[in-house]
Structure formats: C-alpha cells, structure tokens
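Justification of computing resources. Each target in the renewal requires a structure prediction run like the one illustrated here; the chain below, 894 residues long, is used simply to show the kind of job we budget for.
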Amino acid sequence: MFYNKDIESIIKELNSSITGLSSKEASARLQKYGENKLKEGESESVLKLFLESFKDPLVIILLIAAIIQIIIGEAVESGIIIAVVLLNAVIGVIQAKKAESSLNALKEMSVPHAKVYRNNEKTNVSSHEVVIGDIVSLEAGDIVPADGRIFESESLKINEGMLTGESVPVEKNTDVIENEVGIGDRVNMAFSSSMIVNGRGKMIVTATGMDSEIGKIANLMENADTNQTPLQQKIDEFGKKLGLYILILSAIIFAIEVYRDIHAGTSNNTKEIIISAFMFAVALAVAAIPEALSSIVTIVLSIGTKIMSEKNAIVRRLPAVETLGSTSVICTDKTGTLTQNKMTVVDNYTLGDQNKKATEDFEGISIPFKNADVMNTNFSDMTDKEKLVIIGMLCNDATIADDGTEVGDPTEVALIDFGKSSGLDTKNIRNNLNRISELPFDSDRKLMSTLYKIDGENVMMIKGAPDVVIQNTKYVMENGKSRELTNDDIKRLRNINEMFSELALRVLALGFKKVSKDSLDMDDEKDITLVGFVAMIDPPRESVVHAIKEAREAGIKTVMITGDHKITATAIAKDIGLYEDGDMALSGVELDNMNDEDLYKNIEKISIYARVSPENKIRIVKTWQKKHHVTAMTGDGVNDAPALKQADIGIAMGSGTEVAKDASAMVLVDDNFTSIVNAVEVGRTVYNNIKKSIAYLFAGNLGAIIAIIVAVIFNLPNPFTALQLLFINLVNDSLPAIALGFEGTEEGTMKRKPRPKNEKLLTNEMMREILVRGIIIGAVTIIAQRIGLAKSVNLGVAMSFSTLILSRTLQTLPARSSHHTIFKLGVFSNKIVIGAIVVCLIMFNVILLPSLRSIFTIPMTFGVKELMTCLGLAVLAGILMEISKKIKPSKNEM
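Resulting structure tokens:
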C-alpha cells in the first residue's frame, strides 16, 4: 500500500533513486519481472466450439437417426436432418467468437511510449519496457504507463474515469495518506491507462503489467463466470429430459412393432420388419423433436432486439433480451445513468438572503437580470445575485462552443451554463472583456483569480473553497452595499456552507477586489469582498424517479454502485426515491471489512455502494446471484468490465469505453436508466411470446405423437413419413411460431413480480395448454386417417398429414393467448399472424401439385372432397381450442 508510505522509504524499498534507474538495471528488471503489458488469454478453437454444438442430446438423437437412415437407403430424409444440425452448429460458433473481444479491447489501451529517467537523463521508451522503480515524467496529455507513487505535483490533475467511473479529474498531491482508502481516494497515486489533463509531475513506478490496477481488472475479466441465461438453462434442462423420453418411447415403439410383426407373421423378411419398425421409431423421434425450436427462439429474440433498439437499447447478445424479462435486481451506476453527467448550479446564497432554507430539489436555477445588456451596466450597480453570475463567468477557463461542445472543468462549465440560463450572452461578454492577468487554480491555495478592466477600473474576480475565501475576506456585499465582515457573518456563512455540504452540493465562494496594478500576485488575494456562494451538483435525470417507481412495482430492486462519495450518492438516491427508510449505504472500505456471511444477510437492505473497486462490484453481483436473483449490472468504465461480464446481463453505456461495451450484453445509446426499465418490459413481452411459440410447437408435435401411438396400439399403418414431419416441423410451423413473436405487451406486464429463476420452462398452465391443444390435434388427425384408410393406406397417410398440417397452422390463432379468445384479442390485431397462416396455406397447396405429390406420399385419389374434409376437421380443432379456454380459464402468468 504505497500510498501509506513516504517517498524516501518507497525508493529504498524498490532499490531505486530519485534520478531513476540505469539502463543496465532497467534491463535486468525487465528480464526478472517481464514486460509491462497484459498477458494473452487463450481462446477456444473454432473446431472445439463447433464440436461442442453436438453435445445437445436432441442433436445426438437426430444424428443417430440420420446415420441409420443412410445405411438403410433413406438418403433424402437423412440429408435434410444433417443439414439442419450443421447450420445450427455454424450459427453457434459465430455467436461464440463474437464474445471473445473484451480482453483484446483492454490490451489495446496500452500506451505506446513513456518518458522515464535512465542514466540521469529523460528518455522515451516503449511503455512495455517500463519497470518497477522507474522514475516517470508526467505531463498534460500523457497517458500514465504504469501504477506509481507521485512525489512531484504541479497542479496535476488526472482523469481516472476508466477506473473509478467518475468523469471529474482528480487533483493529485504528494502527501502520505494515513488510512486505508479506495482507488478513487488515493490522490498521491497515478494508475496505468489514466490520462493527465492538467499540470505536470513525477512518479516512481510501483506496479506494472498484470500487477497494476488495470491488470487486476483484466485478471478479473478472465476469471469472471459467463452465465447461461434463464431461458438457455431451461431449454438445456428440458432438452436432456425430452431426449431421454424420446429414446425410451422410440425404443418401446420399435420393440412393439418388431415383436408384433414377427409373431403375426406379416413378413418372412426379418430385415424388412426391422426397417419398417425403425421407420416408425424415426417418425416418432422426428415428430417429437422440435427441430426448428432453436432457430425460432433466436428469431423471436431478434424481433425483441429491434423493438429495444427503438427504445435506445442495442442488444449485443441475443439471449440478453429474454434475461431482461426475468431481471430482479438492477445494479446501476450513478453518474450519467441516474444523473445527467453534467454539473449544474442548483442553489446560491448572498448575505441578503434571510432565513435561507435548503433546496428541496436539484433543478438548475437562473438569476433574472434587471438589464440584460450587461456590457452597458456598471459592475457596481449590479445586484449581489447578478455579481455572482458575472464573477462565475469571468473567473473561469471553460468554454462552450456554438454547437454545445463543452471544454474545461465540469465545475467551471456549470458556471458558464449558470450565466447562459440567466439570459446572458456569455461568449460576447467574455470576448469584450479582455483578461489582463490571472492566478490559476491550484490545490494548495484552493483559489483562482482573474483580472479584468471593468468600468475603467481593474477588478479582480476570485473563486475558491468557502473556508479559504472566508479567511481572505475583509468585506461582504449585502443588499448591494459593501461593509466589513463580522463574526456573525462568518458564523452564518459557515452554517450555510455546512447546510449545502450535507446535501452533497459542491460549494464555491465568489468575491472581487479592486486593484491598482495590471498584474496579480498571491498577496492580492487578501482583503477581498465576498459576494456569496454558488452550490452545484450533477442532478438526477427527470425521468428517473418514475422509472425507479415502475421498477419497484415490477418487483425489481434498484441498487446504486458508484465511484462517488457516499454522502453525494445518498443525497441523489433519496431525491430519486431509490433510498428509503431502513436502507443501508456502504463505502468500498466498509464493504471490504464486511465478511461474506454478513453481506449475504444484509444485501437486500443495501441500496448504495460508494467508492467501490472492481473486486467489490463482482462480489456484490455474485452475492445477489447466490440468492438466486437475476442480476443486471450497468457500467461505462474499464473498472466495470469484470462485473458486466459476471452479471446475468451486463449493460454498457453508449458513451462508455469499448472495453465495457465488449464485456456487456446490451448497450444503452442514451445512457439513461429509464431505457433499462423500458427494455425490461420488452424482455418480459419477448419471454411471453417465446412461451407462446414453444407451446405452439409442442402442441403440434404432441398431436403427431398421439396419432403415431394410436396407430401402434391399434396396429394401423404409420400415419406419416419422416419427410412429411420434417416439412411440418421445419417449414410449415416456423412461420406461425415466428409470427407469435410479434404479439404486443399484455396488460399488467410491469405490475407483476419477476418470474422465479428456478421456474420450469413448461409451467403447469403451459402444460395444460399443450395437452389440450395436442389432444385435439391428435384426435382430428386420427379421424382423418381412419376416413382415408377406408380407401387405401396411402390416402390414409395423405389425409392424416393434411389434417395435421392444417390444424397446426390454424392453431396459431388460439395460441395467441392462453386466456383471451381470438375475438377479444381481435382477429386482425396481429396482421403478421394472419400473413403467416396465409403463406402456410399457399405452401400446402403447392405440395398438392402433381409433380410434388409423390415426394410427400399424396396419391391422386386425394381430391377436393378429401381436402375439404381435412380443412373442416382443422377448423373444428381451432374452435374446440377456443372453447377450452372458457371451460377452464388460464391464470394470467408471466
């Protein structure tokens, strides 16, 4: 912990010197400790990823069936099965390779060169050659090449947002820090890959490569778990069970068929009997396995991504859409997500303000000017409030371009905005009042002064920390008049400063002094006239209060995780309704001192974590996950990347680093918390629609299975060929199942609690729907086969196939809702469903063409009468499905 040590002891400990290392010693250390870069991570080969796609038990069953079909001469059907399996494997490899870029983006942040002292001379070296003990020169515009302890600082400011998440540059000093503090409070340290925005300094390198803070983050990212989404887990679990049931059922069917045919003496050719029985078993397997399920789920998720993109949420990984729907905890950053990421003046004080009360909100304020033509108004004639605005504008180095681009310290930009919101042409005023002299701000004085020629006199404008300005004050302005400062004034000013500070407001004191010379020195900053205070904060976004309330109504806990101070975080959290009575707020150090058991017990009460480290963030996410919560995590910096990867769904900010985006599953274009809540609603809708698609597929498959089992029991011919079932499963059923993905959001979607993480894919209510619709489809299919068998076996196959395909197509209408009839929903309210049904009916008519009939085993004896019979049975099936909703209405569940 080098920030706790003085520079002399550090130099001694690292066996270095204030003038740097020799080239020989640096080379020896480079050999000993290795290069200053992040280690390469091993990536899985394309072949390994491809082969992993074949671990799915349903895929294995299909491949075995396809291989045996090739052996017995059924090449067409086996070719179709193999093609489908290979296509799914290729898609899986492409998705997996896209997820490997997080660590690579982190490596690209390494710095090409650094200024170090070697052999008593300053020289440029590759950043990879920087070693522990090197003395590094730091200047504005440089990127820090390694972690180090600062021992020289001249107005040094470093932007550490990529590590802490806070955009305000950190003022650095050389003082020893006595206590244990988090990264954001180690003001005597510089960290690898952070950027120097002001001043200059020197540091001694204390850590390089994977031992630096950014190296620790890389290590965390490498070791963070990549979790399956709830839907992926359920589909995998269901696939294993379904595969086992299909194998058992197919084996039973095969055994029954072989036993019955041999004992019945239907054929003397054993091989022929086995092939016939096997084709029955294959037909059952093909009927039961939803070959298009994976593709349909992917397409429905893609529909969700399009809707989310319209709501400012870009999905990088498809399963994230569904994961959002089951999210029960959102761990969100404060700056820029809950707040506007823009310092804003929200209050002010002058001695003329009587009975001053604390602001009740954090909205930006303005000061109405008596005369907006400031250039023709004497400074001495302005009110105290007007003087506050003018001093804030002129004692200021920030600029705001015509296009709105802000350049400069966020605090100073806020003062410029304060002038603009008060109706002033800030650019014109500053251009017409030439600055004669200045004393730049530094962390030792905690003051900044500028000198202007105003009304023929030299007027020094001054701003700084209230306690320092008060110490240098001799006069005060009260109601437009200047008088000497009294002890009562000091007491009142300090009380006001304390009141603002308790609200986590950043306070600046503003004053002026008339001087007789054209240059300034530090003695001029004494005996000033204090005008008053301005108080500022990064205020909450307007829509956040409603969004947090909506999330709470939806059963979602919102947790703030920020690099800012606890008092600031708590003030914002209370203002937006995130922090309630009984909640807890912890700093990173307090969290480090809490053991895992206490954190597990108290985590549901903790609403705020402040000044946290990357390790803290991962620990928070993992603890929520141990409680079986689906956890979303937002972030924008490099420090957020490990937790983004660990979370069930990582959400990066559009303005954030590429590392954070690559580690995330979703990116918010507008950095707005409200967009997350909107995306949750889309996620819940998508999951509902996926369930509708799954129920649609399984009900149709169940109907086919019932027809096959009945045929086996009653010793009837096989009602379908494997090719017919493949056509239905892969082609005909796909369009209606996809169309169900376009169903709108159901009423009350965001009033329900998130579904439990351990909820079964097929809930009891969903099973009932599948059984009812499957039995109805199976029944009408069996009836159709019996009608056709009266004339021929082939006609029986044709009529069972036609009735199955038509009833499964028309099943799309009742599948739109488990509790509302199609008439209540509106027959044409989802036009895409109607379009899918029409296309399916057209495709069915195409396979009735003479040239295609033989392929699908449809004899020429299958005419209009038989077609109308099948269509009538299919319509009857649809009517019965709608009636079943009224017999036992479904519960409206997620």
